[in-house]
Amino acid sequence: MTALLALVRKELLSLFALPTAYLTLTMVALVTALIFFDHLRIYNQTLFLYATTTMGGFSTDEIPDYINLWDAVFFPVMETLGLTLIGAVPLVTMRVFAEERSRGTDELLVTTGLTPTTIVVGKFAVTFLFVTLMMGVSFVYPATAIARGGLGIEHLAAVFVGLTLYSIALASIGLVCSAFASSQLVAAVSAWAVAFVFWDFAWVYPFVSEGVAGFLDAISLHLRYGSFAEGIVSLSNIVYFGGVVLVAVAAARFSFDLRRVGA
Amino acid sequence: MRGLALTGVIALSFGLGSFYATGHFGVFSAVNLALGSLALLAATVAGVRRIRRIGGPHSRPVILRGALLIVAAFALALVLEQSATRSRIQFDWTGEGRFELSPATLKACGEFDGELTAALYRSEGDPRTRRTRLLLQRLAQFCPLVVRELLLDESPEDEDRYAIGSSNSVVFAIGDRFETVERPTEGAIYEALYRLRSVSNGVVTVLRGEGQGDPERQDDLGYSGLAVALGTEGYRLQVAVSAAITEIPDDSDAVLLISPRRRMRDSTIDALRRYLAKGGRLVALLEPGVESGVESLLAEYGLEALPSVLVDPASGAVEDAAEGLNIVAYNYAEHPASAGLNQNRMTFFPGVRPIAARATRPGDRVMGVVWSSPHAWATDDLSVLEQRSGRVERRDEPQGYRYIMAAGRYPRDGVETRIVVFGDADFASNRYLRALYDLDILINSVHWVVQRESQITLRPKIRDTVQFPLPMQDTLRTLYGVGLLVPELLLIAGGVVWMRRRAA
Amino acid sequence: MSETRGHAANEPRPRGVRVEARDLTRRFGEHVALDGLSLAIEPGEAFGLLGANGAGKTTFIRMVTGCLLPSDGTVTVDGVSPSASPSAVQALLGFVMETCRLYPELRVRSFLRFIGGARGLAGARLATAVDRAIERFRLEGAATRPIGNLSKGFQQRVSLAQAFLHDPPLVIVDEPTGGLDPLQQTEVQEILRELRGRRTLILCTHDLHEAESLASRVAVLRQGRLVAVGNAKDVLSEGEALDLFRDSAEVGA
Fold first, then answer.
1. 20 to 30 A from B143, CA-CA: which of B381, B447, C54, C71?
2. Distance between CA atoms of C187 and C193, rounded to whole angstroms?
3. How far apart are the first and last CA of chain B?
4. What is the mean pLDDT of residues B225-244?
5. In chain A, where does DSSP find H-type helix?
6. Residue C243: Cβ-neighbour burial (10 angstroms; 0-12, 13-18, 19+)
7. Which chains touch C (3 or more CB pairs under 8 A)?
8. In terms of residue numbers, what domain contains C27?
């Protein structure tokens, strides 16, 4: 445990000792702000348009039900955020293992007595912490929509849990790619591709049976992530994201075995 | 090998990107997806061969152990996920329990004989369908329901057949009967299921003509919502002009009297008296400040609608009225009509006249069912109803529990008369019927008077979507207050770290 | 110097461990990086491993540290195989990697605290070990500075400090003076000279003079094969030492 804590502390120090982490957070905050305010602007314009054309003010009888904070702002923002995170999270994870390898410190880590499992768990934990922070930063805007929509703190919590679990799953994918890649660029590109594939398997459905499609549905990120946004926190979805982390830890650990073998 | 893998990954992403952007397989996406998959497969094969070639006596167990660990992790994850799915454990954190199905819905869904299907018709990319899908999946977990999804564009004949107006519509069907739900909230689904069951609970006669509430009027002041809700619950409504009737029609299972505004004719009151005397059922919704004549008839049954206005300071100022005039009630007696209601399941009554309940004959059972708070008091000054703000001053009126709704059972010559009186009628108007549990207390009262207690339930709430705008000024304030402040602080922190590093 | 002072309160220190390789072979595809190396390094010995680039020195070291598995043969450290129990072996060794592979963004003290923590040290023991290392390797003025901002000589001192932090019985130093200017080279060699003798030291270098001045015994590798092993002065003073690096010279082990 001492070794793990030392590694976690070192990873945090490394992460926040460089301006890159702050720049990443700034970029994520700005991009999320842009996405959110753009949707909000369009929503407001639509509402005002209805208000003026119907001459009835904001009478709910006159405005189609699909023009509401949920469907016109919150969900599109969450959907776009989901795809944006596929782009952003690999930028965070690409350096975690690949950088150690490129500057040769991976063997320093191993020879200090840290086991591969400790290294993987420590690095995963710190990355998850950072990604959670990223979500905190980007969550300010959807939270504004929820708060103004009067949907309550519980719903807010569900969305945050979902968003964080989803990002953690993305980070896990990115970390595995970083663990196997020899350069940060390769790590990022492969993480984008893998996350993109796992986002939704709709493209495979024309070629597979209904059973296989059902299985692919069950492992796709998109469907799992969506129900949290609706305020549903199901054990099945939590376990799914936990499962992604578990498999990713085992795979990242395997990269150390391959390195010892010299593959 | 690595080159192949990278090529495969890039080709796959471009293929997918093209597929999602265009929504179909073009030559570009198909070729990329095929080549990408092939390249990845080849890279995997090459990787495995390379590992096999390198592997010495020390390497094999290490590789085998690592690979087994991945397989074990995957298997464990799969088993846990399947168990979690089977456990059906899920938490509805929507605050208002949007996906917690009410017993009424589950009951309505579970009472079908034969295969009930729910077809969700949607357009591509309609975000609302996700909510509907979750709701249907939840429903299917508890009752034998087959859920299907169809694209509207691919089902033009269904659009006409089921009168589907827009995406995110659900058609419930059993045999050749169907119900189309255009805004599939749980409430709407419940009502559709109830209609699909075609239950007949009887005939309700609505008296009209003396300024009573209009069950056909559809604005806020009308009672069309109540008429629809009664229809959903299996009641057929027949309207009788009160001035013209000499007898209540024989086929009436109950009479509904909604807020008469004028004095009713003696002949009408007599007809009601005769009807009640022979085991009739009456639900009367009475407004303060009106003497229609029915009050004296009700008093004969120990239900006295007092000529005053109830003020309940516990309710505060609600909905454009002086403090305590619009009453949020949360005290209920043990009675079938209020079954399931409690301090968290409140009812709302705007402008109430108190009801006194006292049995007048042995064997009669009369009781207050919905009570005010113990701080309530009644004033004879009816002008307070016009007061739109502030507080109604209490002089020396005593405070205590007052009845807002009362009910009585009266054995008469081998039959039983049942009467329910509400000291308010507005609560059943279109404006307030769906507020809190108003619909439930009223419909359950009707079920009770017609002695169909088995139908008594708490219905799912139909919730309006939030169309609250953030005014432009608010939007800008939020943008500058929160939207830019967070990135700014982060940038400052990054700058400070960079400067300190350089200086160290 | 401070080394003696630093250990005054400790238990009797280990005299080093034995490192032994038998028919050690490592192949990368068709390329044979190390070919049937058999070698024994005795406890407390300062052993120099010489060879041109690509001779197999680093491959041998990576197998001793457990970072790489042999294709054939065995290597043991104090009787323990790094292939089977890498953690047990890694607990016994300190490793100075070639070209100062450190974390440039970390400050010296934070880095040493991390290494100490990874080695299982905590609390007062960790603080003492870090302070002692900073003093021993003359890093007082650089302790709060980011490693990336230090000169190469100081970075190499940090690298040595981390390897000696937990006072291991085996220290492996790979090209300790590579890329340093003459003054820095002398400094590092002085430090190593002071620290050898009480533990097994494996010095990997292609600098003949460095090997001669620091090691008591040396082995010369060429194209993965052991071409000479023996007393440093004997092997390196024959005047033909440079031939050992040349492909044409064939000298039996």
1. B447
2. 10
3. 44
4. 89
5. 2-17, 19-54, 75-103, 105-111, 116-148, 152-180, 184-199, 210-219, 221-229, 235-261
6. middle
7. A, B
8. 1-85+214-253
Specify the pTM: 0.73
By C-alpha distance, the chain A residue nearest B18 is A203
Judge whether B98 lies within some domain.
no
Distance from CA of A263 to the nearest CA of C (A): 8
Whole-number pLDDT of residue C9: 40
Looking at the domain assignment, is residue C43 inside a domain? yes
Domain count, chain C: 1
CB-CB contact of B391 with B322 (8 Å):
yes
Task: Break chain A into its structural domains and give their ranges.
Answer: 2-261
For residue C210, CA distances in Å to C226, C228, C235, C236 come to 19, 17, 14, 11
**Is B94 inside a domain boundary?**
no
What is the rounded average pLDDT of the residues C214-228? 86
Inter-axis angle of helices A184-199 and A221-229, nearest 10? 70
| Contact with chain A for residue C64, Cβ under 8 A | no
A117 touches chain C (CB under 8 A): no
Q: How far is CA C9 from CA A19, B83, C91, in A?
A: 43, 57, 21
Least confident range from B109-118, B324-333, C118-127: namely: B109-118
Q: Do C72 and B53 touch (CB under 8 A)?
A: no
Whole-angstrom CA distances from C65 to A28, A107, C21, C220 are 41, 9, 13, 20
Alpha carbons B23 and B149: distance in angstroms, whole number: 18
CATH number at residue B271: 3.40.50
Which amino acid, one-letter code, is at B309?
V
Residues of B in contact with A218 (CB under 8 A): 81
**B412 and B356 inside one domain:** yes
Q: What digits encode the pLDDT tens for the residues B366-402?
A: 999 999 999 999 999 988 888 888 888 888 899 999 9
Indicate if B354 and B290 belong to the same structural domain: yes
pLDDT digits (tens, 9 = 90+) for A4-32: 999 999 999 888 888 888 888 888 888 88
Task: Between B410 and A211, name the one with better pLDDT.
Answer: B410
Q: What pLDDT, in 10s, does the model give residues B139-177?
A: 888 888 899 888 888 888 888 889 888 888 999 999 888
Residue of chain C nearest B63, judged by CA positions: C69
- What is the rounded distance in angstroms from the CA atom of residue A115 to the CA atom of residue A120? 9
In the predicted model, what is the mean pLDDT of residues B308-313? 93
Q: Rounded to a whole number, what is the distance in angstroms from the first to the last CA of chain C?
A: 38
Non-local (6+) Cβ contacts of C123 within 8 A are none
As beta bridge partners, residue A233 has B91
> Is there a single domain that holds both residue B212 and residue B351?
yes
Mean per-residue pLDDT over chain B, rounded: 86
B318 neighbors B389 (Cβ within 8 angstroms): no
CA–CA separation, B400 and C81 (whole Å): 88
pLDDT of C5 > 60? The answer is no
**Residue numbers of the domain that contains B438:** 204-455
Q: Determine, for residues A10 and C103 on separate chains, whether the beta-carbon distance falls below 8 Å.
A: yes
Query: Sign (positive/negative) of CA torsion B179, B182, B183, B184?
Result: positive
Assess whether B364 and B482 both reside in one domain.
Answer: no
Percent helix / strand / coil, chain C, rounded to 5: 35, 25, 40
Across chain C, mean pLDDT equals 81
Q: What is the pLDDT of residue B94?
A: 75
pLDDT score, position C253? 34
CA-to-CA distance for B80 and B86, rounded, in angstroms?
10
Query: Which CATH number do you get for residue C16?
Result: 3.40.50.300
**Do B184 and B433 meet the contact criterion of CB atoms below 8 Å apart?**
no
Sign of CA dihedral B108, B110, B111, B112: positive
My answer on whether B423 and B491 are in the same domain is no
Whether the CB of A110 is below 8 Å from some CB of chain C: the reply is yes
Supply the pLDDT for residue B60.
Answer: 80
